[in-house]
Amino acid sequence: MSDNLQTFTAAVYGFDAVVNRVPADGWDAASACEGWTARDLVQHQCAVLNGVAAIAQTGAMAKPSPPEDMTDPAAVWAETRRNVLSALDQPGVLAQQGPFWFDTADVDDLIGVVQWDPLAHTWDLAQAHGQACSLDEAAAAKSCEWVESAQAMLNESGRTATACEVPADASTADKFLAATGRQP
Q1: Domain count, the chain
Q2: Is the pTM of this model over 0.70?
Q3: What is the CA radius of gyration of the chain?
């Protein structure tokens, strides 16, 4: 397993842990992402991972593809999680050449970048329900490095807000969240 696949998987399962703790009647709660509910966050995350799965399955560029029916967000998420991890767990998939999203060279590089999205939204979803949230430190470190290097593009495209200040001794996870414009 590559380092990128390991941290991507950790980010996906971190999101999964929070999804599984959302009460059945809690999907319409406001999230930390302005204008988005918990249901919207899961739909977005499914769209991103559906795009990654399509790239992994075809070796060609694909767009994020949101599920249409979000009646049962937890079930839709579980299916999406299984599909993307299965698609990535095939011989030669990680070495497929791009360029893909964010001008990544291969699928392994793609998932090394994309991991920042489920990682950030893990925190957002946890905030919607007052859940404790522990982000994988290795994924947070890699994601923080990439987000900081792409800060201008991420801000300009509306993918993140302006970075927040955190103390120098903040955890890696808090530094990552602050880099994405979240106040940990």
Answers
A1: 1
A2: yes
A3: 16
